[in-house]
Design brief:
Layout lengths: L6 H17 L7 H8 L2 H7 L3 H12 L2 H6 L1 H13 L12 H14 L4 H6 L1 H25 L21 H21 L2 H5 L2 H10 L4 E5 L9 H5 L5 E2 L4 E2 L9 H5 L5 E5 L8 H23 L24 H7 L5 H5 L5 E3 L12 E3 L12 H5 L10 H4 L2 E8 L5 H5 L5 H5 L5 E5 L5 E5 L9 H5 L7 E11 L21
Helix pairs in contact: 1-2, 1-6, 4-12, 6-10, 7-12, 9-10, 12-15
């Protein structure tokens, strides 16, 4: 019993850890938090194709252990419900809608889009909620407290931090989702896990007769119904002495609620092996895993970003290799959004087309990709942004600067400028003679890495320097004197 009573504490500790993964800039680069992010079901699937089969085997042994221990959205629902501790309505059969949702996710992926997965994946939904709602609020509160004057020489423990990136429509979508789920969970337990989550449904195909599961001791059961009222997924029937293993998330609430010790977490006896129905469930699960693995190898986005006249193609982070690779692996969890110290990686609605709901782009109106930074490549759990050494990152061409001569201040106003050349870390943008003793920018495409420093530094409106994203990343030739220009604060209101 003593071990069971620590469950609520465990939930809050692990939930806080997952929140820290999206709150702290350097969290997730290594260590336990980074490991927990990379072994989420769909993130791990996009990184390693064999993942679904490993999760299937583990679920056959230990039930939906992922839902109980590793899913941040599941822990969120359990924590919210624990605040109210409402008596639940009791057992009901699982809805067939969950199988339709899983089938819809598979079909959408087969047709070249993972936008539906972005809406439903528990890890991605939790990450967007933390980065777009909680993080901006905490940074604003920190800055408010840090701005208060202190008496005398009292040391200051809080310091003003750059504003957290906030995309209003993404924040609104995440806020509505989490608010609705919190209200639902407060009264209902873990409803998302029970009927909507495609990850839970997939794992449920293997957990209906797992070896480790909740078991009844019928001789000790008084049929009081407390276990049934405590079950957050309504998968336990006290009258029938039955637990639907495909929906049980191993939260252990029923064991804690039982006053007679009639329930325990035990090993399935050899005589109770896979029944025919369970065998067909497992076969269906293996079919899903095989189908998704085949889709993963052959899948290409149905719609790639357009290049219509006047519209610059999106810019994907260094390490993403190509637009196609980024779209097919990014689950829009916002881990890279949190990690970017310049605040330029921002989620979008559909900048990447129908395949890329909420997937981020680099927005140089807010800063530029810092030459000495590779943070985004260290936190991506799916491989959409692959790890890079700093030397390799400094030569990756994610875009190419475009000089719009007629918009340049030198041409329009006949005055000297040169801001782009001063701040280009590779000297791809440099000044050449113009007229009347003035110089004008010129771009050496072989040196340009598309970092956006020239765009951000340009004082003209509209910008005389913009960056066009490259659909396939290239490699710039080494700069003769890299990093010689002054370092530009990406959060300054004006770069001079």
């Amino acid at each position: 019993m003593k071990r069971i009573r620590v469950r609520p504490l465990f939930v809050w500790i692990f939930l806080s850890g997952f929140a820290a993964l999206f709150l702290l800039s350097d969290a997730g680069e290594s260590g336990l938090l980074g490991f927990c992010a990379k072994i989420q079901v769909f993130p791990a699937f996009f990184r390693w194709g064999i993942t679904l089969f490993l999760f299937a085997g583990m679920t056959l042994l230990a039930g939906r252990f992922y839902c109980s221990f590793l899913c941040p959205l599941g822990l969120f629902q359990e924590a919210v419900h624990g605040l109210g501790k409402h008596r639940l309505s009791g057992y009901h059969r699982g809805t067939s809608l969950r199988y339709g949702i899983l089938a819809a996710v598979i079909i959408s992926m087969a047709t070249g889009t993972i936008g539906l997965l972005h809406l439903l994946d528990p890890f991605a939904n939790f990450g967007r909620g933390i980065t777009q709602i909680l993080r901006p609020v905490l940074v604003a509160a920190n800055n408010l407290l840090a701005s208060f004057p202190l008496p005398g020489d009292m040391p200051r423990f809080l310091h003003v931090r750059p504003p957290a990136p906030l995309t209003p429509f993404v924040a609104m979508a995440a806020g509505i989702f989490l608010a609705a789920l919190a209200a639902w969970s407060f009264f209902r337990g873990r409803p998302y896990c029970d009927g909507l989550c495609p990850v839970g449904t997939f794992l449920g195909l293997f957990s209906s007769h797992s070896f480790l599961r909740i078991r009844f001791d019928e001789g000790s059961c008084s049929n009081c119904g407390r276990c049934e009222a405590a079950c957050p997924t309504a998968c336990l029937s006290a009258r029938k002495r039955r637990v639907d293993g495909d929906r049980c998330v191993l939260c252990l609430s029923c064991i804690e609620a039982c006053p007679h010790g009639a329930l325990r977490l035990g090993i399935l006896p050899v005589g109770e092996g896979l029944q025919r129905r369970a065998f067909f469930r497992v076969a269906a699960g293996l079919g899903v895993a095989i189908s998704l693995s085949a889709i993963r190898r052959s899948w290409t986005p149905s719609v790639l970003p357009g290049t219509a006249e006047g519209i610059e193609p999106p810019i994907s982070p260094p390490g993403s290799r190509s637009h196609e690779n980024f779209i097919r692996k990014c689950i829009a969890c916002s881990a890279c959004v949190k990690a970017c110290p310049a605040g330029i990686i921002r989620p979008t609605l559909m900048a990447w087309g129908v395949s890329g709901l909420f997937q981020p782009v680099l927005d140089y109106d807010f800063g530029y990709c810092q030459y000495e930074c590779k943070s985004c490549s260290t936190v991506c759990p799916t491989g959409a942004i692959e790890p890079l050494s700093l030397e390799a990152k400094q030569r990756v061409q994610i875009g190419r600067a475009q000089f719009h001569r007629d918009a340049c201040i030198v041409v329009k106003n006949g005055t000297a400028c040169g801001a782009c050349a001063e701040h280009c870390p590779t000297q791809a943008a440099h000044m050449v003679p113009f007229q009347d003793g003035l110089t004008i920018p010129e771009v050496d495409a072989s040196l340009c890495i598309g970092c956006g420093a020239c765009h951000f530094a340009c004082p003209a409106s509209p910008k005389a320097m913009t960056v066009r994203g490259l659909s396939t990343h290239g490699s710039a030739r080494p700069a003769k004197t890299p990093g010689e220009g002054p370092v530009l604060d990406p959060l300054e209101d004006f770069p001079f």
